[in-house]
Amino acid sequence: MEKFHGFKASSSNWKPNLGGRLPRQIQRALPIYAGVILFILFLSYGNSFTPKFEVAHVKKRSVNGQKVLGADSLAQKSPTRFPKKIWQTWKIDPLGFEDRDLTCARTWTQKNPGHRYEVLTDNNDLYYVETHFGPEGINRSDIVEVYKALTAKIIKADLLRYLVMYIEGGIYADIDVEALKPIDRFIPERYNEGDIDMVIGVEIDQPDFIAHPILGPKSMSFCQWTFMCKPGLPVMMRLVENIMIWLNELSKKQGVPISDLKLDFDEVISGTGPSAFTAAVLAEMSIKNGYEVKWDTFHNIPESKVVGGVLVLTVEAFAAGQGHSDSGNHNARTALVKHRYHASKWPTAHPRYKHPVYGEVEKCNWEVECVKMWDYNTALFDGLTEEEKQKLIIEKNQADMQKQAEDEAFARKLEAYEAARAAQEAGRTLAGQETGVASMSRPASQFLGLAAATDSFSKRLE
Ligand SMILES: *[C@@H]1O[C@H](CO)[C@@H](O)[C@H](O)[C@H]1NC(C)=O
């Protein structure tokens, strides 16, 4: 009690300064409060560097955001990293994919768990284009109108990938492209991601054919069915603008609106496809470097190189196993994707030049002797009389019909074989429920036999 009174007496000396209204318990705790306040001050001082960095980061991001939105501020610096996003476009969304497409698409998601994955479909593509290119986006209604008017699916698909890459960037891959390696491996370690705006691969490198009337324009190209971009690249917008000009000119030439354009194979390739893409990329590299960048920069390159901010990978990276252009094979370490080509049914919708007797020169697959023979034969054909020409065409058609009949007979045989095998399999499954593993070895060898038969069948169809 003495002590307590003593404390009270001494505290009463400064009590008037606090107005005398503080309850005694708070008065006793004051030193603790002061300590806590000092401690909080210390903490916030110690942490003050982090919030400063965060503010800077947010500011930087919004600058980048504006860069994408403002069509005229394209010259700004790209973000240091490629967006971790995989894009595909297809008729339907991935939950409805058939097995073949699902298997292929999963190679991307499974190898790249850190990436987001999105498929634009025939039902939501226009919404995407309107959102990002309409008045609420970068306000390029001309682009929206052309996209809306287009009916040629392949042109739309080409255009859409460029639009998406311009707005958001990331990696685009056709639906029939399989990932062989994680995307992190697409940029070799010797490069700094901050120095690269775009990653592309050589697909066709056959400059010797440059003078050929049919093969020439397609003899040197980068592929545009798999490529990677940072958002807002001027090359993507220029490509889109070139396509708009091309479509409008074609519309004038054919005297029909864009929605009614008829396009052949070569027009698609040169207008929106690989040739258009290649020309736009080379033009952009030339602008960046201040001199004309030509194809020879990428002819026979032993390894990847960066030109004007574009990382160009060797043929093997995206287009292995073509049997031309020194494309190597899919088992190589540097083979990054595998194009299965099952989605490219569009050549039938957009016919390419097919000689009535000697067929398509593309079937030569860039074999020099084969192309020479085709050129020689077709030139010879041109020198024939109408009568001789007709005779050759009739002979050719007869040979084709005979081959078709053979193929059909073979297909029926194969069908019967498959039915028999399925029946046998069903019988074995019933019996096998008892015996289990023991019955596994025979179907495996039978399956191999069937695979070989299917293989030779498809070869015959070619
Ligand atoms: C969009 O562009 C058009 C001209 O093409 C202009 O008239 C309109 O005001 C613009 N709208 C916005 C929201 O910027």
TrEMBL record:
Query: Is Transmembrane among this UniProt entry's keywords?
Result: yes
Enumerate the UniProt keywords alphabetically.
Membrane, Transferase, Transmembrane, Transmembrane helix
- Gene3D superfamilies reported for this sequence: 3.90.550.20
Molecular-function GO term, any one: alpha-1,6-mannosyltransferase activity
Q: Does the keyword Transmembrane apply?
A: yes
Source superkingdom: Eukaryota
A GO cellular component annotation here is:
mannan polymerase complex
Where are the bilayer-spanning segments? 29-46
Question: Which Pfam family, any one, appears in the UniProt record?
Answer: Gly_transf_sug
Q: What InterPro entries has UniProt attached to this entry?
A: GlycoTrfase_DXD_sugar-bd_CS (IPR007577), Nucleotide-diphossugar_trans (IPR029044), Och1-like (IPR039367)
Task: List the GO biological process terms.
Answer: protein N-linked glycosylation
Q: Which family does it belong to?
A: Belongs to the glycosyltransferase 32 family.
Record protein name field:
Glycosyltransferase family 32 protein
Species this protein is from = Hyaloscypha bicolor E
